[in-house]
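Morning. Coffee machine broken again, so started the prediction first thing and wrote up yesterday's gels while waiting. Chain of 489 residues, entered below exactly as on the submission form.
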Amino acid sequence: MSNFVTVATVAPTDGPPMAAAMSGTAPIEPPSELFQGRRAALPLDIAVVGCGLGGLAAAFCLAMAGHKVTILESVATIGEIGAGIFISPNVTRMLIRWGLETRLREVAVKPKALNMRRWCTGETLSWTQWGDSMAKKYGAPPYHVHRADLHRMLYDLAEPHVNIRTNCRVVSINPSIPTLMLKSGEVVHADLVIGADGSKSTARHFVVGKPDELRFTGDTAYRAVLPTKVLLADPDLRSLVETPEMTMWFGPERHIVGYNIRIKEEYNIAMCYPDRDPPEESWRIEESADRMKEEFVGWEPRIQKLLSLIPSTLKWKLMDRAPLETWIHEDGKLALLGDACHPMLPYIGQGAAMAIEGAAVLGNLFSRLSSRAQIAPLLHAYETIRYERATNTQAFSRLSKATFHLPDGFEQEQRDTKMRAAMEDTLKKAGGEVLVSGTDANTEGNTDHWNNEKSDAIQFGYDADEEAEKWWHQRGESEIGPLSVSSTL
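Came back before lunch.
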């Protein structure tokens, strides 16, 4: 564990903020077997570039599939930047399958509901029951967790099974061999390279082969974490802790999200707003919260109280990229994963989910490897399984920004009316009332994407392992399986 370091949650003034991981005491007991007990007949040497959430998940899954995996991480000591994140059932089902259920319960918070409110009055526009209801519906619960805690869990999960090398910045890749050149001059050889090095990916450049710059969306997110004891001391804020929900406030060109993390010891706040400063691709630290507060003048009293408790805040410009045509280098030995190929805007909380799902699919597919002739086809199978879902989720997130940030007026009133109708139907069904077919507002056309049963089922009901198994039986068995027999190793 010597490579893993954590420092104070409070942002320093001379470098990127690193959040201390909350210690979990539960031992991690990964399953003795994954992928229905399969392990690759032909073990590969696999290099994973990047030790973030996606890189750790991919390394673990590929190691459990029987391969020798090395993670190459550019920094000297491993930690995690960030604050709270939402992990939905499509993610938690994988984490539970990997043996992390008890650790999650130790450090996370299960939100009871999603509560969407009007910016200036605090009126509830939409309320959706989550918690045990969501777990029953989709087979796994939702959680709010500090990103550093999730990162530490995945590190502890992967570390016994993979070689994690720090201070190994990849500066060049020869995708045809493949080899990776490190900043130190060392050349690392591998059979397969997985680029999981984030939205500023070096590996991506070698897949795309042309300039491919991040695009500033025009929005920036302020983030802050407060000790919940200060909220509990205020009668107007106490309920935000005592009734753990994801609370979202919608306003013109802006929205705010708040929820509990770390077994309700901390309250995470994220605030998105239109940023008129010159575009840049990096985080930076605001020295005070004055500018943040100016962006939310006139918002309801509870927001003013919350903002008054924040002495300083962290600021991230939200960057985006258009979907790639392919995630796979033409020579079939380099593939991208997570934000390296499909960076997600934060509006629907699915960035980590897409990376972890992709990691599970990679591991599942490569548990079947028995010939080098199968490497490229299996990478393309991974892309086939994952491309449409990840690309649709990217588009869904961009669409959600427009829905959340409508200016006050006719469109906003229409949105709010539809959201109220969906909420009323939700409450009726929760009370046991049977709705007449065609009258349920929780259907297509409902602009409340978080309270739409069809879109929720698609997003939260997804099982990455099941999708990989299904693809193999439908196509892989006949298209890729025979390559094991025909190929000379």
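The longest strand covers residues 215-227. Going to sketch it on the whiteboard this afternoon.
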